[in-house]
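Field log, afternoon session.

UNIT: design team B
ACTIVITY: writing a sequence onto a fixed backbone
BACKBONE:
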């Protein structure tokens, strides 16, 4: 019987929920213990040696997804200086950068050795995946050194349009509706996002959600003329269905 432990900052412990579920459903591994102490959350698994490669593969896939789809965005948020651009565009810009070229991020992350008996998730990233961290730092440095050139609305919209155009599509089609007072985003008939007002914060979050969901096509409807509608049309440009 081989034991393996994963430790992560307690604030990220729910990001291991999928990992735990996969291991339980495999019927090949046992969760020996899980505990929280000193702001860390730890979980220990055990399995027969014959199933160890499967355990390591499940852990690798889940940690790579955490690094690329969750932690990358947080790392960018902590280190980007976007004070020179309008706040309404900052969340969308961070989302766009977080999703930009994620295939390469995943390839780099998957090259790491996840066979260690003990893995501390965040230190593992910074010490074992330095090339990935350096890649993110390059993006951050380029942004921080050049973002002042995009301090006009038209300039940052052009930049966002370029990034959005080159993102991999996550959804086939989304329907964006500006209602009487709020905003709704539908994926087919499923409500994916909703606001009760159309404040600048709501507009900023709406644009960010659209960037994150990255649809192939975007249907836009508005009950009344809206100044922000044209901004969204400009950013998503060719994706807009007339």
């Amino acid at each position: 019987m081989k034991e393996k432990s994963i430790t992560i900052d307690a604030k990220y412990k729910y990001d291991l929920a999928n990992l735990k579920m996969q291991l339980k459903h495999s019927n090949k591994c046992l969760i020996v213990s899980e505990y929280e102490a000193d702001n860390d959350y730890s979980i220990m698994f055990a399995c027969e040696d014959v199933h160890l490669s499967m355990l390591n593969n499940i852990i690798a896939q889940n940690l790579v997804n955490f690094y690329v789809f969750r932690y990358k965005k947080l790392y960018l948020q902590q280190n980007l200086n976007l004070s020179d651009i309008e706040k309404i565009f900052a969340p969308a810009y961070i989302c766009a950068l977080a999703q930009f070229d994620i295939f390469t991020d995943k390839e780099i992350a998957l090259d790491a050795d996840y066979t260690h008996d003990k893995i501390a998730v965040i230190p593992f990233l910074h010490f074992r995946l330095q090339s990935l961290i350096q890649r993110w730092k390059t993006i951050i440095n380029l942004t921080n050194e050049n973002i002042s050139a995009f301090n006009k609305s038209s300039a940052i919209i052009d930049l966002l349009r370029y990034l959005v155009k080159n993102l991999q599509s996550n959804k086939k089609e989304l329907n964006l509706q500006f209602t009487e007072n709020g905003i709704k985003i539908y994926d087919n008939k499923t409500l994916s996002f909703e606001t009760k007002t159309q404040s600048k914060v709501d507009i900023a979050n709406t644009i960010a959600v659209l960037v994150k969901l990255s649809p192939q096509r975007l249907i836009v409807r508005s009950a009344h003329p809206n100044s922000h509608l044209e901004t969204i049309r400009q950013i998503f440009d060719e994706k807009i269905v007339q």
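LOG NOTE: The beta strands are 2-9, 29-37, 40-47, 118-120, 171-178, 183-187, 190-195, 215-222, 240-241.
NEXT ACTIVITY: expression trials, pending approval
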